[in-house]
Amino acid sequence: MPRKICFNAVSATSEDPKYRLIELNSHGPTVKGWQSGKNCEYPQEIILQLERKCVLEKIQILAHQFMIPSKMEFYSSNHLSTDPKTIKWEYIGYVTLSNNESTEFKSRELKYANVPKTEASMIKLNLCENHKNNLNAYNQVSIIAINIIGSNLQAEPDPPSVTDGQLSKLNDIINNPEYISPYDDLAFEMYVAPDIQKIIRDMEIKKYLAVISERFEYARKLKHAMLRLKTAGEKLGKYELEKKHAIEKEDYEKASSKKAQLEQFRAEVFEELGIEDLLEVNGICPKNDESVDTSSAAENKNLLSPTMVRFDRRSSSPNQHQLNSASPLRHPSPKTGSPCTGSPIMSRGSLRRRNKSAGAIAKSTYEMYEEKPLPALRHFSSQTNEFLRECQVDPEHKTSSKLTEREKKQASLPILVFGCDIVEKFYSKHYLDKEEGLNKLKEELISYDNTKMHTANKTARAAVFLLHRALRDKVFTVYNLANEVIRLFFVQFVPGRVLPAEVSRSVDKLLPELLTKSGDTSARIHHMAVHTILTMADVKAVRDLHIIPVHLSRQVSSSTHPRLALSRAEMVEQLILNHGISTDKQSGLTCRTLSEFGASGLHHPAEAVRKVSERILVLVYKVNPRMVRKQLPPDDDITRRNLLYRQLFHEFDTIDMQRKRELLERNRVIQQYPAVNGECFSPEPKEPKNEISKCISTGNIEHIANNFSNNDNGKQNFSISKSQSGSNIGPTNGDKRHDTGSRSASGVSSPSNNSQKTDSERHCIFCNQSEKVILLMCNSMNSHYWRYCPMLVRCKHCSQVVEVATLTEHLLMECEKNDLFMQCSQCTEAVRKEDNQSHLLECNDVPEGYTRCPLCHKNLESTELCWKNHFMGTSNLCQKNTRVKNVKQVKIQV
């Protein structure tokens, strides 16, 4: 069968002094790999000389996490030579490598290349130019490990102590061309300790021989031991790597501790599995062929159980607790499987079952609890938690529940990210363990470093799994701490790290459980859940997804539990106060959605729910009265007989009256014009009979106004008629001044009386023309606002006068016919709904830093004077503004 082919890396185009080419000759957890020189030329060549001539089957490449070549080409040669230039190479093929942007340059890519069967003695790799990224400052390429799988052309030496009959059958198994041993794979060699690798390979041959000899019990034990040794070898590899890192940092105390931990763990594994007996170094061991009966199996299972091993360790070594407290590497490669702080050879299962099957051990555990002295009950009334803590088993005898196989599969991702130790505490039956697990998870989230192997998305998914489990706990201290960690997760960990898709998944996982808790009978549980949901909703990353408002604003039915309905209604009301009512249809806070939610709450049998729904409808009514009225019965005498509707409609009437007062105040200039000789003036004043109308140009307006005001004759001066709110219009002397403090028809206010103290300060607040010039063109400032001011425009649909700059907002929000318009998604203008499709074909996006004129549809640079230059400048004036083209007239009263 194809086997691993050893090789020797003989040459490379360049190499980094710290990452030499000889690193490729060996495999293991501490291997650093080869790197090219800084700013090297491409392609880079690596030449490998195989141990023996073979037929190539597969080449495995483990690439660097960010020094990644874009392509690798493979060549083979059947001739050995000391000079690489004289070798004739035969092209095999090539593979491409990912740029690793999706993993944020934290994962290594293991590439499998199945090559056509080729006889070869040497192999050449051509590494093309690297993928560009910010971490690879010197444009280097790197390979961590290379593995060659092939079939030997020469017969291999026979294993020792094998008879001729066994040898032929063994050759049939070994020479199977379809089977490749999993223990020759690069993923196995890179993460398992080298000494464990050799033992497992020897056991594989022993297993084949045991099957040939029909020693099936022995073969079963070997298979079981190989699987457990693989897991133990991964842990030993991590210890070795941690020891190497401690040596590099010159932390020799930690290195010594890791060495002792590694040696003790290896000795325990070898002793508990009986490696020496299984390898049969001294000949056939009859014990290996004995089948274990039920009683002995139960006894053996207890001997290997996590609980009893821990007791034995503590009883035998007083310093062992300090060694076990050292946390293993929590961020292994995904290929290594699940990290576990306990022994990997321990049997799985619940503590209750183990105690049932082992009577003596159960008795000792029972006596351990019985002989524990209890504290005095006087502490119970004041410090309940302290009493419970004192009643717990002594820490040195405390048992922590281990995970079953089902729980390990269920929590595989959290185990991979955070390690077995933390996950076991979440699955423990002791609330103190769960609190400790939540505190450790909190520390992990606070101290998260993006240079670690696991991405923020993977860490978030693992954390949410554990938090969802803790959230369902019945002990309030655990539930309270879980809510605290959830708030910390969304407020501190999520922003800037987690992708929106993963944030959405996290909210979908936790929100249903929190909504259920918000309807709990306990006030503290209810308030804690509501506080957590509102905190999540305030986070920008969650708010942009619109998940929480959509869930909360769904209509409630009469069968909805009163406490749950009340919690939802109160949270919706708080969201309206915090975030406001949105026009985005996906937000869940639109007028239509909130009106339907409030109307459904009015029919709920609980009075508290109806009161909150009434407040929600009042808030929405202030924004869109028509939508709220549409969801309610008609406002007539029959409906007002209902007390609830009577109070609600009374609130609506109060809002309507307030709105009408504001509207009357805003339109006071139009509706309350003073009369002269019993005749009422319209907003656009008529020409008096004794008035001479002269057409003048805008350039001479100021000159004529000065001539009239500077008349030095003793005769009565000509006076310019003025319209003033709240006073009569009549003949005035040229030196008499009147303050004008009126408001325009659309709520546009002119300068207040306090700001108009002298003639030089009286100007139109929109076009900045002086009152003296304005009154030469029209009879009043109000007429100027109504007809002549170039910065204003009259709405064609409601006849209000508004600023041109705010015409779009007026049509969408304030206009009486705003339901006919919608905002264009491209140019942001107000467009009729029926014309939207044709408009989208013609309009263009507004560039950044520009705004668009709603009249001529030109893009204007967003500056302070852009609108004034557009309507009152010297060139390129708005062609659609009729007030710019309008002929100015000065009316002089004779």
Report the mean per-residue pLDDT as an integer: 75
Overall 3D geometry? elongated
Helical percent range? 40-55%
| Number of strand segments | 18
Helix count from the secondary structure assignment: 36
Q: Which ranges are low-confidence, i.e. pLDDT below 50, for 5 or more consecutive residues?
A: 293-400, 669-760, 886-894
What percentage of amino acids are in beta strands? 5-15%
Number of domains: 4
Give a short account of the largest sheet: 8 strands, antiparallel
Structural class by sheet pairing and helices: alpha+beta
Distance between the termini: 120 Å
Rg value: 43 Å
Could you characterize what this model shows?
The chain is α+β, with helices and mostly antiparallel strands and 894 residues long. The chain has 4 domains: 1-185, Galactose-binding domain-like (Jelly Rolls, Sandwich), CATH 2.60.120.260; 414-545, Alpha Horseshoe (Leucine-rich Repeat Variant), CATH 1.25.10; 564-665, no CATH class; 687-894, no CATH class. 45% of the residues lie in helices and 12% in strands. It contains 36 helices and 18 strands. The strands form 6 sheets. Strands 1, 2, 3, 4, 5, 6, 7 and 8 form an 8-stranded antiparallel β-sheet that branches. It has a two-stranded antiparallel sheet with strand order 9-10. A two-stranded antiparallel ribbon has the order 11-18. A hairpin with a 6-residue loop joins strand 16 and strand 17 (859-861). Helix 24 runs antiparallel to helix 25. The chain starts with a strand and ends with a strand. The relative contact order is 0.04. Residues 293-400, 669-760 and 886-894 have low confidence and may be disordered.
